[in-house]
Amino acid sequence: MSFRVLLIAALPVAVVAVAGLGPRWVAVARERRARRRAELQPLGPPIEKLAADLRRLLRLHGELTVSAHSAMCAHRVWAVEAAIGSRAIEAAAALGVPHPDRAQAASLTRTELSALLTAVAEQGLVLPRRVGHFTLDGRL
């Protein structure tokens, strides 16, 4: 009998407490889940995708530089070189290799880009041994 009285007396208090604190608990739970998701987000694409993109771009660069229409596609070669620089910087960042700022990807010189690709390859990224010909202005 006393259990029923206790339940009848405590039930309204419990309902009011849950109604008052429930939204606050839900907000705290959502914030924790959002914080946990934000901490687990990768900083860039997976390293496998970066490696595949670099190999594809290096192969394309080699094909463009040996093409008979090299004068016609010089702008394409420079665009591919900028893309190689961008992906190489992303791969270097993912592997913890010292690298230039991402904004400098399009202006990397042949020496800088070769050094960056070599450093990335030394960290275990599989790249082709030979990377086609170089353009006349000294860029990769």
What does this entry look like structurally?
This protein has 140 residues and is mainly alpha-helical. The chain has helices spanning 2-40, 47-65, 74-95, 110-122.
Overview features:
single chain; 140 residues; mainly alpha; 0% strand
Task: Bin the helical content.
Answer: 55-70%
User: How many angstroms does the end-to-end distance come to?
Assistant: 88 Å
What Rg do the Cα atoms give? Answer: 29 Å
Unreliable stretches (pLDDT < 50, length at least 5) are: 132-140
Short description:
The chain has about 140 residues and is mainly α.
Fold blueprint:
Elements lengths: L1 H39 L6 H19 L8 H22 L14 H13 L18
Helix pairs in contact: 2-3, 3-4
